[in-house]
Each structure stands twice: as structure tokens, then as C-alpha cells.
## 1
Amino acid sequence: MSEVSGEAGIIRDLVARIREFCRTHAEERIITKYAKFFREGFDAYGVDPDLRGSESDRMLKEHRASLGFAGFLDLADRLMASGKYEEACFAIHFVNGFRKEYTLDAFERLGDWFDGKVLNWAISDSICGGSLSYLLSQSIIRLDDFAPWRASSNKWKRRAVPVTMLILLTGEFDIRHLLRFIGSMMMDEERVVHQGLGWFLREAWRKSPSEVDEFLAEWKDTAARLIFQYATEKMTAEQRSRFRRAKAAK
């Protein structure tokens, strides 16, 4: 009981310490600088990213032995629940410090964050690029583990699917399998998901242009145009013209 209470006390103190740090180093100019990039709003203290990163490193080093991965996961859950941008950044940094200890349970915990705690594209993509991509690249999880995410009620969880899949393009991959996996998402109604899909398709096209061309041609008259805007960014004007939506018959 004393050990549990001790760990809980450390976590409570760290939450308070992080919030005090953020309040002390808050700058309105930082909020103004970054807010324009967030359509969904930017709930932040306004802390310089380099300063925040240094403090994250310091806290992780100071309490790594006493809390371990399990304790830092509990701390990260608390921070993610606040909705504050910097607190989420602290949470992600802490969890990424334990990647060599990742298990399937870590995937489940991170998945829970997407059910209401991830509030913008920067936090979503940071989790994908730093944590979920590692889990997938190290075969701790499989692509099929993301299958339920494709139909999640949360748009950020759906976006996380194609964004995390980017890591698969860095090694050997079956492009047709990857394209089939995202096929059910091509009629998604959310802009942030369109952006994620387009991003993945753009990078996939650079590796496997003929297969991606075929896939884009299949969806060009039905899927959101924003997907194609992103997917065709690296194409020539002539190449992009092949994916214009056909005019409706009069």
C-alpha cells in the first residue's frame, strides 16, 4: 500500500510541477505563432518547444527508476486528460522514452487516448510518428490491429490509421494489401481523415506509382477531392489531370 501511495504521490507532484512550469513559462506570442495552424482550436499555455523538451528530459531522467514505464503511463494518462497542448506533449515525450519496453498493452493504452483525449492533428501525428509507428515497425502489433480504428467514431483515431501506415513504406511492403486496407476509409466525411489518407497515398505513389494510380482512378469520382489534392502533390500537371472528377451527365 505504501509503495502504491508513494508512486501516486510522485505522479500527483509531477502533474502539479508540470502545470506550474507551463504557467511560469507561458508566452502569448507562442500561442499566436502556432494557433493559426489549428482549425479545431489551440488550447495551450504558450511554452517554447525547446524549453518544454528540456524539462521533459529532466523529469524523465529524474524519475525513470522510481516510476518505470507503468508509472509514466499513468502520469501520461493524467496529462492527456487535461486537453492542454503542452501537457499532451509532455505525455508523449515520457511514453516515447520507454519504446524498448512497449507491449501490446501500450498499444491499448495509446488507443484509449484517441477516444476523447487527442484534440488536434499535431498531437495525433506525434503519437503516430513516435509511438504507434514504432509498435508497427517492430511487429509488436500488426496492421490488422488497426482494423477497428477505421470505423471509430473519433476522427483522430481514424486519421491515425493512414498516418501510422507511413512507416510501412520504409521497408518491404505489399502495396495492394495496404491500399485494400484503407479502401473502406475513402468515403470518410472528415477533413482531417482526408488529409491523412492523401498524405499516405502521396508517399505510396512515390514508391509504387502504377498501383496507386489504379487505386486513385477507382475513387476519383466518389472520394473527397481533398484526398486527391494531397495525393497528387508530387505529380506533374499532366499526371494530376488523370484524376479529375468526371462531369455528371446532363
Note: The two ends are 75 Å apart (CA to CA).
## 2
Amino acid sequence: MVDLPLDRVPMPENQAAMRSDFPANISVSPKLEVRNLFKLFPSRNKQLVVLQDINLAIAANELVCIVGPSGCGKSTLLNIVAGLLPPSSGQIRVDGKPIDGPGRDRGMVFQNYTLFPWLTVARNIDYGLKLRRLGRAERDRRVDYYLNVVGLTQFSKAYPKELSGGMKQRVAIARALANEPDVLLMDEPFGALDAQTKEQMQQFLLELWERTHVTILMITHDVEESVFLSQRVYVMSSHPGRIKEEIRVDLPSQRDIEIKLTPEFLKIKRQVVHTLHDDRSSSHIA
């Protein structure tokens, strides 16, 4: 089944704030902040350091990607930010307030969709709202709105088995957005898609972000994807996982697939690749 283009829908008034590029030389209060984060796991009568002194900050309405080699702790970091895992030490703050578990202020989108196969598209989106015991009229309003946002209104009564991979991920994103989180966390959301669908979903996510202005922190192993989508890229190194470098993506906010062929894009991509390669080389030597 072919994915549908994103519907052109108006932005809700409460989401119309302009996003910030969060320049390092300007003092702003971050929407999401990770402070001095460590994560240790027990291993053969000792403590294995998985994440070491992680510090990062994301401004309101910013889209930031984290890349790093396999096993560097990217997904562990995102699960801690989501409140699904406790940190060994350090803090996660949303709007300056420490978090101590899952919360409505953070929505999560996983790689494998995590849809309920026995529920229709509309009822999948409605699931979290029902758990919150919102009234039926408000739930229906949000479901209808976010179905329109992700371009799946005519599939509201379909079941997940009737959808393509890209459409399933759109439903998962709509379900997360329906709870109106302050931060959307995405763990390699397009990693299971074929190359063509992946590019379609990348463009879809940029268009969605332009309309909703939700703050997004995304984990990806795809360097090109990280440069195409984000305003900044955090590069992680492994053993233990730590932030090695922060790379700004100085590209126009309005982007299409053709930008991947420009010298400016390739220069930033090369910088990210070299940073990753240097880490792997030094790890190999060690």
C-alpha cells in the first residue's frame, strides 16, 4: 500500500510559537535537559558503565538527533529520558522540573510501531486518551484532528494489518501526539522501513514538525537522516557511551530530499561521519 501525502492542515493556536535554534552562545531555558547522567549495569560482580556524564539541552520547538555506533547506549539514554529506566546518577529535566518516571509531558515512538492489532487506527490513537479518562467528545476531537494531521482520516476504521509500514508509523506518531506531549522522543522510528518509504517518512516528519512545532529528540543510526532532519546532531562515542561532539546543522529550515545533494549538506554529513569514524578507530586501537 502506498503512503498518502501529509494533509495540509492548520496549526492549533496553542502550538503556533516560533521554534528556537537554541544557539550555544544565547542563554535560554531548555525544554529538555540532561545533566551529568550516568547509567551503570551490574556485570560479573562489577558495575558496567553504559553512559558516562551525559549532558545535553534541547530548546522548545527544536528537532535534535543523536547518532552513535551500535552499543553506545543511544536507546538506553532515550529510555531514561522517557522515564522507562532510572539513571544511576544525574537528572533529566523538562521545563526545569526533574522527572522521576514516565509522564504525559513526554511521548515515545518506537521503531516497531507497537500498535494493538485488535484495535482500529482510530482506537489505537484513542488508547492513551481513554486511559486518562478524557471525555468521549474530547477524545473524538483529538483523534479526528491527529488523523487529519498524519493524513490517515480515511483509514480510521482500518486495522494495523491493512496498513503499510510507513502508515503504521504515522499512526504511532499520531497516538503519541494526541496526548499533546511537551517533548516527542523517537527511537530509530524509520529503521525498519525500506529506503523509499524511509525518505517519504523523513519528509513527512519535517512537514509535521513545521506544523506542530513539537520538541523532538530522535535517536538514529543513519547519519544522512540525522543531518536532513535536525538542527543539531549530538555524536556519541561508546565504551562507555558519552557525548563526543555537538554539530550544528546550518541548513534552511525548509528542506526537501534534493538538499541531500548540495555541497552544504555533504559537508555537514562528512563532519558527522568523520567524528564517528575517529571514535571507532580509537576504540579499535585501544
Note: The first strand starts at residue 32 and ends at 43.
## 3
Amino acid sequence: MNILRENKKIIYDGLWGNNAALVQLLGLCPLLAVTGSLVNGLALGLATTFVLVGSNVTVSIIRNHIPQEIRIPIFVMLIASFVTNVQLLMNAFTYELFLILGIFIPLIVTNCTIVGRAEAFARRNAPLPSLIDGLAQGIGFTAVLVLLGALREFIGQGTLFDGVHLLLGEWARDLTIHFYLTEQKFLFAVLPPGAFIGLGVLVAVKNLIDEALSNKKKFAEINAPESTAVSAQS
């Protein structure tokens, strides 16, 4: 039961409680630059998740053989090897999308989230919890990329899933959803200012939800003794 509880906490922290993008505010450079569309955000999120999982598990497996004095360079070297694999895979199977994302694929190496999880979690835990942590952190980061990309794409050009065929193949061209037609994009949403404001909105919404849940929990705790007393008297 303790293991199950610990794994649930790891998943909760990765997806919500300690989300890399909304709480730690890490990886903001690709987060703000790439999320001009939902598909771009999804592609970078999947690539980041792959690197996170691979580096976390590898660091966990060899953690007892890593000299403490040079652990960070070793982490970076491991992360770089997984990023190279992602680059080669995208170059082979999603070449056009690889060109669109450009420099932000190799820049995954410098993502503080990945190095941070290797340092703070993977080197202190077994492979299975490290795998779960990498997946949770990666999915949480990807969800923010997708939400922000969808928000900017919808406001900026009135579509969702534009360019999804670059990720899934030609059969997916018909998956693009058009909400309204426009001759020119709403540049404020598509360019970096829209990314900053969109991220601010997402952070604010998360804080409001957390506050509402906290108030609900406090209200339940205050009323719990009264309910117990009434039950005892009856």
C-alpha cells in the first residue's frame, strides 16, 4: 500500500502538484517559442517525454556507479544521447515537422526539467519509480504545451490540429478543425506576447483550482467534528 501511495503521489506531482511548466516554470524557452500550434506543442512534448523517461531510467540503473563529483556532466551526456535519438527518429519519419521545430529539438538537452529530475529524483530512486516520474513529468509538460498551443492556434487562426499530417501522415489531413475563416492570422496570439499571456492564464486557472480545492478541504475538515458529534448523540 505504501508503494501504491508513493506512486500515486509521484503521478500527482508530475501531472499537477509540481507540474514543470505551471509550478516550477521550467523549460519556458521551448514552451513559449514552439506552441504556435497544437501539433507543434504535442510533437515537442512527446520528444521531451521520451528523453525524460529514457534519462530517468538510465540514471536510476547506473546511479550507484556515478561519481558524485562529475554526476551533472554525466547526466547531460546521457540526456544528449537520447536527444540525438529523437533527432534521428524525427529526421527519418517526420522530416517537415523536424524542420519546423528546428533548434528546439537539440535544445531539449538544456531543459532544466530533465536535468532536475535526474538530479532530484532518478539518482535517489529505483528504476520503476523513476520511470513513473519521467512519464508523469513528461505528460504534465506535454499537456501544458498542447493546451497553450491549442489556445494560441484557436485565437490566432481559428483552427485546431492544423498540420497534424506532419506528425501522423497524409491520412490525418482531414482531422484539422476550422472554427472560423480569416485572411490574416491574429499575430498577437501567434507571436511571443500571446505565449506569455496564454501561459499566465493557464497558471492563474491552476492557482484558482488549487485554491478552490483547498477551501473545500478546509470546509470539510471544519464540519467533520460537527457531523461526528451529531451521529454520536443520535
Note: The CA atoms of residues 17 and 210 lie 9 Å apart.
## 4
Amino acid sequence: MNGIPKYVVTNTLKRADWNNTTILSGDVSAAIRKLKAAPGGELIVYGSPDLVDELLRHALVDEYRLLIYPVILGSGKHLFRDRIDTHHLRLTETRRFSSGVVLLTYVPDPEVPTSRFVEEYRWTLEQMRSLQAAEDLDRTLATVLFADIVDSTGRVHEMGDRAWRKLLDAYHLAVRGVIERWNGRNIEFAGDGVMAVFDAPTRALRCAFELLETARGLDVEIRAGLHTGEIERRETGVGRIAVHIAARLPGSAAPDRVVVTSTVRDLVTGTDLAFTPLGPTSLRGVPGAWDLFEVGSSDR
């Protein structure tokens, strides 16, 4: 692996330190077509459902090697996304291993089979709409709040592990009470960070202000960020891009301050609120530049 050429498809990494690694960004399909036309060996994609989906859309896959394991997981990420176009394949090789794993090799088949199963297993418009409706039941518009403790590493070094653990427990207890008072849900703690979801942006912002005051009362300084967008409720919590955006916002906030996106600014109400523009800001792992605002209140 160290010796062969490697290509990483990414819109976030600017450099790759692994030996013989090249970053591909921008128009991925054009870059891969260029690689396929160049001399050299086979191009192999390991996993990466998002990349595989992009390659499928542009008919760039020449061979599929699927390993079937004798394990039923019952969950996990799909290798092929729902609602992709139908792709017909032809089996060219089968190999069975002593472990029970089977390797199936397929190539795209330009001829559409005439079997009756082709029509029976084809997605109908009604089925696609039913799937979309079922997925939308778990999606809702919400305001996501993230907050973290400023210089928590320095505080641990200053206080010691035991004293810090005691303070962090008190902080988590107080934070949970504040969030629940403002009707926040899906409260999650990760070290010195906390996330909560609200059904109204104004309520989330008022909660953020009270969290700052609560932290100061415990001799802790925090910073918070809020974004409003579509989230998906899952068994393990919530997801979708709105959560990732909100998670990056505290990094743009000064200590004891709240930062919001323009979406939150446009939705919240309150004559006591003042929004100071921070200008277009890049958020790690999130495409594009985001207009952020620091929020102050005359009641604070």
C-alpha cells in the first residue's frame, strides 16, 4: 500500500502526507476519466459508498467485486444508495473461501434481461414516493445548539483529574437542567461539549444565553453556536448536515459568546438582540463560506 499510487477524493483536505498519495477534488468524474485513460494498472475503490454512487452515476465502474460474508448485521450503511438507477450486471467469476466468504465478480451488462423479474423488482413511482414519505417522517426542521468549555485542557492541568471530573459532573447536571427548561431535546455530552435540539430558534438562543450564565456561576467559561436546518432523528441521536454545521460554530465564537448562522438571525425574534456580523467564514468539513453573527442581548 505504501508503494502503489493512491488517490483520495475530498473537498476538504488540502494535502495528503501518505506516500504516493494524490488528492482529487472538484469534478471527480472528469479526474477519474483522465486516470482511466492514462497508462498504468487497475484503479480499485475500497468501499466508500458516496464515491461508488458518484462513479455509478457517470458509468465509470468496469467491474464489481463483492465479498459476501456469512454474517447478518441487521444495520449499517448501504453500499448502494436507495433510488439509484437500475444497473444490470453479468456474473463472470465466483470464488469461495474456507471461511465461508464468497467473492462474486460482475461486469456491467449493456443488455437488459427479458426475465419477468426485471419488471417485478423495478422501482415504481408509487414505491419511490412511499419511500420518500417514510424517510420524511424522521426529518424535521430544528435548531441545533453546540457548546464547549474554553481551554478545558488547561483547566484539567491546573485542577487535576479528580477535581476536574467533579466540576464537569456539576456542569453537566446544571447544563441538562437549563436545556430541559427551554424544551431542548436529544441532549448529548461528549467530553466538555454538549449538543441539544430545539423546536424554535428563539428558545434555543435564550437557552444559550442562560448556559453562559450558568457556566460562569461554576467558574467555567464556554462558547456556543446555533444553526437552524433539517435534521434526521435516528435511534442513536440526530444527524444530517445541519448538525455538522452547528458543531463547527463554537470554534468561531469568542469565550463567553454565542455565534449563529444567518438562518438563525433571520428567524429569531426579540428587540433586545443585537447581531454583529463576523463575515464569511469557512467551517471545517463543510463546503462553502458561511455568514456568521455574534449575538448579544441587552438583558445580559
Note: The mean pLDDT is 86.
